[in-house]
Amino acid sequence: MIVCQELEAERESRLRVEQELKLIRDALEKEKERKKEIILLLLAERKKIIGKLVEERKKTEDLVQVSLSIVYTSNTFFFV
To answer: Stretch 42-54: mean pLDDT, rounded?
Structure first.
């Protein structure tokens, strides 16, 4: 009888541990998914910022070219 009670207590304990393990695994999976979403959002934002940087760099280069052509056509030599 005592052996049966010990076995039953051990089985219940194992079930509790398994349930707790399942909860922990589920929480871990949710956390991994949350971090994955954050990473994807950050990558998209980075791509957007790089696109803006390329645009601004092109605008700057165009302005420099315009400035140089104005300086050159006026026969005045300024350092720009």
So the answer is: 98
